[in-house]
Design brief:
The complex is a heterotrimer of chains A (about 650), B (about 475) and C (about 140).
Chain A lengths: L1 H29 L2 H30 L6 H6 L6 H6 L5 H22 L5 H25 L23 H30 L4 H32 L10 H26 L3 H24 L5 H6 L1 H25 L14 H32 L8 H21 L10 H26 L4 H24 L6 H10 L2 H26 L1 E7 L4 E4 L2 E12 L4 E11 L2 E6 L2 E5 L4 E5 L1 E5 L2 E10 L5 E9 L1 H19 L22
Antiparallel strand pairs in A: 1-10, 2-3, 3-4, 4-5, 4-6, 6-7, 8-9, 9-10
Helix pairs in contact in A: 1-2, 1-6, 2-5, 2-6, 5-6, 5-7, 6-7, 6-12, 7-8, 7-9, 7-10, 8-9, 8-19, 9-10, 9-13, 10-12, 13-14, 14-16, 15-16, 16-18, 18-19
Chain B lengths: L1 H17 L6 E4 L3 H20 L5 H22 L4 E4 L2 H22 L9 H14 L3 H14 L4 H14 L2 H14 L4 H14 L6 H13 L3 H13 L3 H14 L7 H14 L13 H6 L7 H17 L4 H13 L3 H14 L4 H13 L2 H4 L10 H4 L4 H21 L4 H14 L2 H14 L4 H11 L7
Antiparallel strand pairs in B: 1-2
Helix pairs in contact in B: 1-4, 2-3, 5-6, 6-7, 7-8, 8-9, 9-10, 10-11, 11-12, 12-13, 15-16, 16-17, 17-18, 21-22, 22-23, 22-24
Chain C lengths: L1 H9 L16 H13 L16 H15 L4 H12 L14 H37 L7
Classes of the chains: A alpha+beta (about 650), B mainly alpha (about 475), C mainly alpha (about 140).
């Protein structure tokens, strides 16, 4: 009866969330500490109960309990155990359960790691966190219940889309949700600030670790999704400007802005209202992302109508949460007083410009993603907004953002000297031009767009490294520079690594978009094909079986000027249960690019259709993305951000000086 | 028991949440304390930066002053004092009771209280038995696989499994299962002969060497009719046609005329007599007139047969896209004793349908029934010529495509339940520039899927703009 | 070309987006075909261009594009030709027309609004700075 206990646990989580939403908020407003403490207790119970429900569902998948409708529809007894487990969240209901599990996890983490946050603030934050939870628990229980039973149970399940039977895509939702749901904490802090009327540098410091953590997860999640598309979809594309991707990209852009503006609040007590608005917007976009993907509205406006109950429920929740928070903002923001004072040339202005650019960039993606939907609803005209639109509108804005991102760290807080900025920018420009020119000459590159992209990446990288060295006291004795470099605060490292990672991603994206080599052809075993500087030779194709699929594996030898570089093993799989084929590309990663081979259909008389690519820069994209995610985590470990770590010195509160 | 557990869990959960209300004294230090430790950290940081030489002393002083200003502001609120709450058993009871009751009340209508888990492992056998009893071979095989896994020394289970596989037409698996049976009861001729037969069938009805050895052993030791039949087949496959027909004849003589294998044996004798252009009555004295005709002997129906052949040939010259006519022609020629002619008819038909797998299969079946596969020269490549299409002349290519489309049409006529096929056919006609045919195909498809709105819609979607209605 | 199209249609489910059979041997023409292919949407897929898609309808369209190229049409003519038959929906880059003015102007409008908001808030900060500077210069009343 584990399944039914799991179902009950989910109901219990809903009840805990309701208690957590009501009692601590009442306590915070009334100044009743015991009621505030109920919030911590309820958060713990809510997480425990949701974890039990999730565990019960996982159990049902593992033992293939097909009396659960969800398991019967999405699993199969012949599936490898790993994908039985990941199959738990590879469907709508399960993924929503994962969503609330994450939400409850963040709630309990705020309760545990936030002991030093004052009780009233913590209680209000937990209460808002639970309000979000109530809506989602109700949504799951009423419209998407994963514990729904069917009788009689079928003998076997219907299987899972084989495209999803892959470790990359299996880990994608948890990471993405870590980001999406992680931003709920920022939302809760923002709404709690509006309710309690307290916004100050301390508030920003309590909130910022959560934003960093969520943002890191979202970065990794997006990169993982892109990586999966790259190796699984079989033609080496990694970003499609697909609405689903945009849905995760928008919170990332606004979340990036939030990350930067929260620094201003923390350090300079400025941009308070703006930061609160950003926190609300970031999570709102996460919610919209969930809504866009889950309601089916993306595939067509009409798909929405096929399941109106679910879609209407989500729409209602969007209105309540986003509309409610924004209304609260409009009502209470006037009471928040922005006191920041800074000169026109200052780090604050730089971050404000960064925020503006990122928000505009996000706005462009937002318009491009939703315009076709809105247009169809309003006029009935069907249009598509695809990569060409985004490339023309988003990329220039983002390129400018990156150029400016290089300059931001050059500016001092409060008041910077424009002359310093000009001097350093000049040096940066010289370095970046040098890198671009030598790349063009050494590799014989001529495409203007590509060279401009390389210039942007080199500009950001050289500015970042320059600033890192300067802060480490260079020029000076190497030993001293290194020592000081090691002693730099973790948050500074976060800045440098993050910006450097972005430059590396940009370089990779530009390289693969502009200088990819490809060859598509029918070849006989033994036949060689030239791809850029490489020669690909199909050696042989062998048919074998996997755990739940049949497969043809090809061996492809890659040589460069006669020397063996790699042997690739691209596969074509056939999943009989699901009646679907998949392609598994054969990839060898070199430091400068990927060798990429795809096996196609047999083409008669022993030949095969093959696609070979040399994708320069692709490894840099993944490296850069990993660096960005890591940078956020490093920044997170900064001693100063460890929430609630009381300083060991129990000195009296600093008294008014003198 | 189930409900008791739930009630206990609900009450526990309620009490856990309400516990803070039961504490005698809960104090909260208020907002400022945490904030002040934040500011203290910030001051430390500013001083660190100054020590590191990142900011000047003057900047440090200014920054310190600013942070201290904020800290003092925060400290002022500290004076508002502690908030304290006392023990509140009523509140605790209320929260706990409402929570527990709500959880139970919400669960009751949503859940399936008390319904047990049904892990696959626990109910598989029972479910499979139920289905196997209802005649589902797949389930029977599943069951038997389980049995053999649990009890690999049971001859009965292996034997049953092998026979079930054979009934499914999965001769490779059947041979595999028979091999286990042979290992357990290798001394039984019936087992050995079934094993060798499965090997042969799995090998595309060509007797493999290992099977021949088994059959030979069986013939030596016992008089197994199956072994004798397959040995004769093996001789035929080794091009010893005379030896094969003699052996089959001997087998036919030794067998009871009503034995189940006699139909097969007689058919093969008739076919072989025709190839060898011999009189079938030498081998089968009791041959029926039809058999004699089929073997090319003194035909009872020579005129009608000749007429039929002539009319089929004429019709096919006009319209070569009629695979049934090609097969009929081959059968007629075979009946008239013209093996080469029959093979030629099939080969010619194949040429027109080179890229239509369904029709090719029909040709192969006809060929097997006429025994042509034993003697006819290996036929040319069928649809492996995708690549060659590029080098064909336009006329040849058009011809090949017309064949493929006709084959598709033929298959859909017999198996109309294939929406994708219909769509493909309509699109092919449209692309070939034959709107008439496309329209007809669409009409046929609509008829085939009458009342199935979803399929009709998808057909309409995918062929929109291709078919001009009139 | 037509031949190859039907052949491919009949050969059952192929797996790859672009097939060697479709390709031009002339690299310049092939470049053009791919450039155009990236501008056109596979109507059955989600935001995939026909160049990237392996759906049958995408292949039909690719072949049409190649036919038009062979016939000597310019890139613009080909896009017009296709959108005339399938509607604006197939253009991944929507045309600039009455119903898309808002879309195409959005980036500029957003930049303008962003710039305006930035200017306003910087001006407000400047005023505040001036006020505080005055206060700092004035004799300290009650230092907090």
């Amino acid at each position: 009866m584990i399944v039914e206990f799991g179902h009950f646990a989910l109901v219990l989580a809903l009840v805990a969330a309701i208690v957590q939403a009501v009692v601590p908020l009442w306590g915070a407003l009334r100044g009743a500490p015991s009621a505030m403490r109920v919030g911590d207790r309820a958060a713990e119970l809510q997480f425990f109960a949701t974890a039990c429900a999730f565990g019960a569902l996982t159990y049902a998948f593992v033992v293939s309990d097909f009396s659960l409708r969800l398991v019967a529809l999405n699993s199969h007894s012949a599936k490898p155990m790993l994908y039985k487990v990941t199959g738990v969240w590879a469907n709508h209901e399960g993924s929503m359960l994962l969503w609330v599990l994450m939400l409850a996890l963040f709630g309990v983490m705020i309760s545990v790691f936030g002991r030093m946050i004052p009780g009233a603030v913590r209680a209000a934050v937990l209460s808002v966190q639970a309000m979000i939870g109530v809506g989602f628990y109700a949504f799951i229980l009423l419209t998407s219940n994963p514990f729904e039973r069917i009788g009689p149970a079928p003998l076997d399940g219907q299987g899972m889309n084989p495209l999803l039977q892959d470790i990359g895509v299996a880990l994608h939702p948890p990471l993405l949700y870590l980001g999406y749901v992680g931003f709920s904490t920022a939302f809760s802090f923002a709404v709690a600030a509006l309710i309690t009327g307290r916004v100050d540098p301390a508030w920003a410091r309590w909130m910022r670790p959560w934003v960093l953590f969520a943002w890191s997860g979202l970065t990794a999640g997006i990169a993982l999704g892109s990586w999966w598309a790259y190796y699984e979809l079989g033609w080496g594309g990694f970003w499609f400007w697909d609405p689903v991707e945009n849905a995760s990209f928008m919170p990332w852009l606004i979340g990036t802005a939030l990350l930067h503006s929260a620094i201003v609040v923390e350090k300079r007590n400025a941009l308070l209202k703006w930061t609160i608005l950003l926190a609300i917007l970031t999570f709102s976009l996460s919610l919209i992302g969930t809504f866009l993907v889950r309601s089916g509205i993306l595939t067509s406006v009409h798909a929405f109508a096929t399941d109106p109950e679910r879609g209407a429920f989500i729409l209602l929740m969007l209105c309540i949460y986003i509309g409610g928070a924004l209304t609260l903002f409009a009502w209470r923001a006037a009471r928040i007083e922005d006191r920041g004072v800074f000169a026109l040339w200052s780090r604050e202005t730089g971050l404000l410009v960064n925020n503006m650019m990122l928000t505009v960039a996000c706005g462009v993606v937002f318009v491009g993603t939703l315009y076709p939907l809105v247009l169809e609803l309003v006029t009935g005209d069907k249009i598509s907004v695809g990569a060409p639109y985004f490339n023309q509108s988003f990329l220039p804005i983002f390129a400018v953002t990156m150029l400016l991102a290089a300059l931001g760290p050059f500016l001092a807080w409060k008041r910077a000297r424009p002359r310093d900025l000009a001097r350093r920018a000049g040096l940066t420009a010289a370095l970046a031009l040098g890198v671009t020119a030598s790349a063009a000459l050494a590799l014989g590159l001529a495409e203007p767009v590509g060279l401009f992209g390389i210039f942007v990446a080199a500009w950001l990288a050289s500015a970042t490294l320059q600033e890192l060295l300067r802060r480490s006291g260079a020029p000076g004795p190497a030993a001293r520079v290194l020592r000081r470099m090691a002693g730099l605060p973790r948050s500074a490292w976060g800045l440098y690594l993050g910006h450097l990672g972005l430059a590396i991603v940009a370089a990779g994206v530009v390289a693969v978009s502009v200088w990819r080599d490809e060859a598509i052809q029918t070849v006989q075993p033994g036949e060689a094909t030239a791809v850029g500087p490489y020669e690909f030779t199909l050696l042989e194709v062998e048919n074998t079986r996997g755990p739940n699929y049949q497969t043809s594996i090809a061996a492809v030898r890659v040589t460069r000027t006669g020397e063996l570089v790699a042997v690739l093993f691209p596969e074509r799989r056939w999943y009989p249960v699901e009646q679907k084929p998949t392609t598994e590309a054969g990839i060898r990663t070199l430091w400068h690019g990927d060798l990429y081979a795809v096996l196609g259909d047999p083409a008669g008389s022993g030949g095969f259709v093959t696609r070979y690519y040399y994708n320069p820069g692709v490894p840099w994209m993944w490296l850069g993305a990993a660096l960005i995610a890591l940078a956020a985590l490093i920044s997170l470990t900064d001693r100063r951000l460890r929430v609630g770590a009381p300083s060991t010195r129990r000195a009296p509160v600093p008294q008014p000086a003198e | 028991m189930f409900w008791l557990t739930l009630i206990a869990a609900a009450c526990l959960a309620g009490l856990w949440m309400a516990a803070p209300f039961l504490r005698t004294r809960v104090a909260d230090t208020g907002d400022a304390d945490g904030a002040i430790s934040v500011y203290r950290d910030q001051i430390d940081e500013v001083e660190r930066d100054r020590d590191a030489g990142l900011i000047s002393a003057a900047e440090c002083v200014a920054a310190r002053a600013e942070i201290e200003r904020r800290a003092q502001q925060a400290a002022r609120t500290l004076d508002q004092g502690l908030s304290v709450s006392r023990r509140a058993p009523v509140a605790a009871g209320l929260v706990a009771a409402v929570a527990a009751f709500a959880a139970l009340a919400i669960y009751a209508p949503l859940g399936a209280p008390g319904s047990p888990d049904q892990p696959l492992a626990a109910r598989k056998t029972e479910e499979l038995t139920r289905r196997a009893d209802a005649g589902d071979i797949g389930s029977r095989i599943q069951l038997l696989i389980e049995n053999t896994r649990e009890n690999p020394d049971s001859f009965e289970d292996w034997w049953m499994l092998a026979r079930s596989y054979a009934a499914m037409g999965d001769h490779a698996s059947s041979a595999d299962a028979y091999r286990h049976a042979v290992e357990l009861a290798g001394d039984r001729p019936a087992v050995l002969s079934a094993y060798a037969e499965a090997m042969t069938l799995a090998n595309g009805n060509k007797v493999p060497g290992a099977a021949r050895l088994i059959f030979e052993g069986l013939v030596r030791d016992s008089d197994d009719p199956r072994a004798r039949y397959y040995l004769a087949l093996a001789r035929a496959q080794a091009q010893d046609f005379q030896g094969a027909i003699d052996d089959w004849t001997a087998l036919a003589r030794a067998s009871d005329p009503s034995a189940p294998w006699m139909a097969l044996v007689r058919r093969d004798i008739v076919n072989m007599a025709r190839f060898l252009e011999q009189d079938v009555t030498d081998y089968l004295p009791d041959a029926s007139p039809q058999e004699i005709a089929a073997a090319g002997g003194s035909g009872l129906l020579p005129d009608t047969l000749t007429d039929r052949i002539a009319s089929l040939e004429a019709a096919l010259a006009d319209e070569p896209k009629d695979y049934k006519a090609w097969i009929a022609l081959a059968e007629a020629r075979a009946q008239a004793g013209d093996s080469d002619g029959a093979a030629a008819a099939l080969a010619e038909g194949r040429r027109h349908y080179a890229a239509a797998p369904f029709v090719m299969q029909k040709f192969a079946e006809a060929e097997r029934a006429m025994g042509l596969d034993l003697v006819a020269a290996p036929r040319g490549p069928t649809n492996a010529d995708m690549a060659a299409a590029a080098e064909m002349s336009q006329a040849d290519r058009d011809d090949m495509i017309a064949g493929m489309v006709a084959g598709l049409a033929a298959r859909l006529e017999e198996e109309p339940d294939d929406p994708a096929g219909w769509i493909m056919l309509i699109r092919s006609y449209a692309t070939l520039g034959d709107p008439e045919a496309a329209r007809n195909a669409l009409a046929q498809a609509r008829q085939a899927f009458t009342g199935r709105a979803d399929i009709l819609r998808s057909i309409a979607d995918q062929t929109s703009g291709l078919v001009t209605e009139n | 070309m037509r031949t190859i199209l039907i052949l491919l249609m009949l050969m059952g489910a192929p797996a790859l987006a672009l097939e060697p059979g479709e390709m031009f041997t002339d690299t310049a023409l092939e470049e053009r075909a791919r450039y155009i292919g990236r501008q056109l949407r596979c109507v059955k897929c989600r935001n995939q261009s026909i160049f990237d898609s392996n759906a049958g309808i995408a292949r039909d369209l690719r072949v049409v594009v190649r036919e038009r190229i062979t016939a000597g049409d310019s890139d613009g003519e080909i896009l017009d030709y296709v959108s005339a038959r399938y509607g604006d929906y197939v253009l991944l880059k929507p045309p600039v027309a009455a119903h898309t003015y808002a879309l195409w102007l959005a980036p500029f409008a957003l930049l303008l609004a962003g710039g305006l908001a930035l200017t306003l808030s910087l001006r407000r900060v400047a005023q505040r700075s001036a006020a505080q500077a005055d206060a700092d210069r004035a004799p300290p009343e009650e230092k907090t």
